Amino acid sequence: MIVLGIETSCDETAAAVVEDGKKVRSSVVSSQVDIHRKFGGVVPELASRAHLDLLCPVIEESFHRAGLSILDIDGIAVTAGPGLVGALLVGTSTAKAICFSLKKPLIAINHIEAHLYANFIDEEPVLPAIGLIVSGGHTDMVYVSGINEYKVLGRTRDDAVGEAFDKVAKMLGLGYPGGPAIERAAQKGDAGKITFPRPYLPGSFDFSFSGLKTAVLYHIKKHGCKDVEDIAAGFQAAVVDVLVRKVLMAAEDEGVGSILLGGGVARNTVLRKALEEGAFKTGIGFFCPPPALCTDNAVMIAGLGFVKLERGERSSLSLNVCSNWVLGSPLPPLIRGEQGGMGGCRVERDSC
Ligand code: KG4
Ligand code: ZN
After folding, report:
1. Are 136 and 279 within one domain?
2. What's the 162 CA to ligand 2 centre distance in angstroms?
3. Domains of the chain: total
4. What is the pLDDT of residues 84-121, one digit of tens each?
5. 180 CB under 6 A from ligand 1?
6. Pair 133, 276 in one domain
7. Given this model, what pLDDT does residue 147 score?
8. Nearest to 28 by CA among 49, 70, 56, 9
9. What pLDDT digit, counting tens, does each position of 285-335 carry?
């Protein structure tokens, strides 16, 4: 089965052609980083406009690289949430139009679930597992008993991990996106020189990173920004300690066979190494997608789409987008309001 995946939830316009959920025929990712860099973060309206300009050429390029035509597809998988409403609407509207004209099935994909699924593309992870999804918009810890079978154990109460990396990088003048910049600076710093607080939130699998971010801000206010590399290393060490300790605790509590990591922050080599070592010591497996499948991409969307389409799942051409679609819950249906059911607008007002 050939599935076209489309991903436009934030600032990457991506399309991929994947065969039977695992064989990647092509993957095209067009990053909007240069557009948003001067604002120090993603500007939603600019992201939507850039997706509009880029999505059709990106899809065409994905077929060109796959050596296939759009007529060869058996279905389309598209991210319908969570993410920026305007950006999601560009992807879903395009997917609907192609499915309608070619009479092909459509499947809506939850972006967080797809980050988790990225672990199943090259590997067969041992289940049940603890999944940790750490990205610019999300920090979720879930119990995974199968693809489609999740129980959310905890999530961030404030900033997502990637968001904290991006904000601290901004404070340190390291530019955007902040995660890779912090990691590079930290390599030259001493993680033991400045100790930042570890927000463990005992008794809960939730996370909280805004206090840590504020601690970095106070440190800069008091001591200035002269030890950028040590600050970056100290901040990164605090984040990694919290994530690793909580994931290992959950793994032990739930008696799982492995740990699955996913999302953009999973590219961080210090985090990957610490989790891998922790899992090894605990005697369980550790899985993490290759770096290109950690950050936003459409391979994970097409791959998960294949699994769902093969199970007979289908989405309606009137599907909604949902800016805060919760992992494990169904995509809320389009609500026909007084204004004729404007999916995205309605969703934002009702916050799903
Ligand atoms: O998954 P992703 O591409 O987009 C969202 O779904 O949000 O994640 C992007 C996030 C950004 O916050 C970026 O700073 C972070 O992932 N990131 C990293 C690294 N590479 C990307 N954070 C820490 N270390 C990295 N090497
Ligand atoms: Zn993502």
Report:
1. yes
2. 10
3. 2
4. 999 999 999 999 999 999 999 999 999 999 999 999 99
5. yes
6. yes
7. 87
8. 56
9. 999 999 999 999 999 999 999 999 999 999 999 999 999 998 988 888 766
Q: Is residue 120 part of a domain?
A: no
Same domain, 134 and 105: no
Tell me the residue range of the domain where 158 lies: 127-283
Q: Is any ligand 1 atom within 6 A of the Cβ of residue 36?
A: no
Ligand 2 centroid–CA 6 distance in Å is 13
* Same-domain status, 141 and 83: no
From 265, 268, 296, 323, the mutation candidate for ligand 1 (largest count of ligand atoms within 8 A of CB) is 265
Residues 182 and 323 in one domain: no
How large is the C-alpha radius of gyration of the chain?
Answer: 20
Q: Are residues 47 and 186 in the same domain?
A: no
**Portion of the chain with pLDDT greater than 90, in percent:** 87
* pLDDT(18) > 60: yes
Could you tell me if the CB of 285 is within 6 A of ligand 1? no
User: Separation of 222 CA from ligand 2 center, angstroms?
Assistant: 35
Q: Is residue 18 included in any domain, yes or no?
A: yes
Report the candidate in 63, 60, 51 with the shortest Cα–Cα distance to residue 87: 51
Round to whole Å and give the CA distance between 50 and 43: 11
In a domain, 309, yes or no: yes
Query: Strand order of the sheet with strand 75-81?
Result: 23-31, 12-19, 2-7, 75-81, 106-110
CA distance 17 to 23: 9
Q: How many C-beta atoms surround the C-beta of residue 226 within 10 A?
A: 8
265 CA to middle of ligand 1, Å? 4
The reply to whether 102 falls in a domain is yes
Same domain, 25 and 88: yes
Mean of pLDDT over the chain: 93
